[in-house]
Amino acid sequence: MREILKNALVITLVTGLCLSFVGITAAEEPIFDYIVVSPEEPTRESEVSFSVDVTGDYIEEVYIKVQECVDPGTPDYFCHQGLLNVSLSNVSGNWEGTGTLQYDDSDEGHCWLVIKSDGTWYDYKNDNSTWTDFIIAEGDDGSDGADGGDSTDDTGGTPGFELILVLISIVVALSIYKRKR
């Protein structure tokens, strides 16, 4: 009976240790407000300012990806593949940055956040409910639109890391249990 209790205690401790590692590595997803675009209706190839309030534990980096589109509401509607990638800086608790629109034929823009929090990247490209849309007015500011964009879609993170810890603990617990029998 004493041997069974000892084995149960060891298995419980190892399992608890594994579960604590899983709890440590799991971070909460950042929370953010609506992205503020200034001016509200920028002209083509003009400089645009972005501002957003992001809260959460260990916010390391915040980017805004901007996609420019042509002919909304028509069968010829399309979005340019090159994205504008705007790095934001934390200014008194608010994340702010500027970028220059790239295309001379755009009529609207869509922007979304990419956030690095506690070593994990969160990319909200596929969550249209978090996008901010804005109208791009015609205008010529003399720029050539040669500001290259970044079209990577890196969601980062460490998938499966916790699973490895759980599997190792199960193997250790089983080997201790079999050795004692």
Note the overall shape.
Answer: elongated
Kindly state the mean pLDDT as a whole number? Answer: 80
Regarding CATH, which class?
Mainly Beta
How many DSSP E strands? 11
Specify the helix fraction band: 10-25%
Number of helices: 2
Structurally, the number of domains stands at 1
CATH topology group: S-adenosyl-L-methionine-dependent methyltransferases
- State the low-pLDDT regions, or none: 141-157
**What structural class do helix, strand and pairing data support?**
alpha+beta
Order of helices and strands: HEEEEEEEEEEEH
CATH architecture descriptor name: Single Sheet
Euclidean distance between termini CA atoms: 12 Å
* Rg over alpha carbons: 24 Å
| Major beta-sheet overview | 9 strands, antiparallel
Strand content: 25-35%
Describe the structure.
There is one protein chain. This protein is of the alpha+beta class. The protein has a single domain, classed as S-adenosyl-L-methionine-dependent methyltransferases (Single Sheet), CATH 2.20.130.20. Helices cover 24% and strands 33% of the residues. The chain contains two helices and eleven strands. The strands form two sheets. Strands 2, 3, 5, 6, 7, 8, 9, 10 and 11 form a nine-stranded antiparallel β-sheet that branches. A two-stranded antiparallel sheet has the order 1-4. A hairpin with a 7-residue loop joins strand 5 and strand 6. Helix 1 (2-25) runs antiparallel to helix 2. It is elongated and about 85 Å long. Mean pLDDT is 80; it is low at 141-157.
Topology, element by element:
Elements (H helix, E strand, L loop, with lengths): L1 H24 L5 E2 L3 E3 L8 E6 L1 E2 L3 E12 L7 E2 L4 E8 L2 E7 L7 E10 L2 E4 L8 E4 L25 H20 L1
Antiparallel strand pairs: 1-4, 2-3, 3-8, 5-6, 5-7, 5-9, 7-8, 9-10, 9-11
